[in-house]
Amino acid sequence: MRKMLCLLLIIAAAASAKAIVSTLDAPDTNISGLAWGDGSLWAQDAVTDYVYEIDPATGDVISSFYFDHLATIVPTGLAYSETNNMVLCGGWYLTNGYVYKFTPEGSYQGMVDLCGG
Questions:
Q1: pLDDT range class, residue 52, cuts 50, 70, 90
Q2: Which long-range contacts (CB under 8 A, 24 or more apart) does 66-69 make?
Q3: What is the CATH number of the domain that holds 69?
Q4: pLDDT tens, residue by residue, 56-114
Q5: Which of 20, 87, 27 shows the shortest CA–CA distance to 54?
Q6: Which of 48, 84, 91, 108 is the most buried (most CB within 10 A)?
Q7: Strand intervals (E) in the chain
Q8: Is 81 helix (H, G, I), strand (E, B) or coil?
C-alpha cells in the first residue's frame, strides 16, 4: 500500500510539474542574486559587483550599474521594490546584513544595516 501511495505521489508530482519555456544566458559569470521588477529581470554579480537589467524576452542587457559598497561586503542577494521603484542589493560582512538601495538607473539612495551594528 505504501509503495502504491508513493508511486501515485510521484506520478502526481510529475504531471503537475512546470515545463521550462526558455533559458537565458547569464550576463556575467558569478550571479548571486536575481529579482523581477518593472517588467525586467535583474541580476547581480558577486565578483564584478555589477547589477544588470535584462530583457526577459530576449536576454539582452538593457542597462547595468556598479554596485558601489564597502569593500568588505560580499554581495549575496537582490530584490526589486515595486512600491519604491528601487533595486535592493543585499550583502553580508561577518554577521551583519546590509541592503543598499539604488534607483533602476543606478543612483545610490542609501543603505540599511539589518543587524543594527
A1: very high
A2: 66/106, 67/100, 67/102, 68/100, 68/108, 69/98, 69/100, 69/111
A3: 2.40.10.480
A4: 999 999 999 998 776 777 788 899 999 999 999 988 877 788 899 999 999 999 888 88
A5: 27
A6: 91
A7: 31-37, 40-45, 50-54, 61-66, 74-81, 86-93, 96-102, 108-113
A8: strand
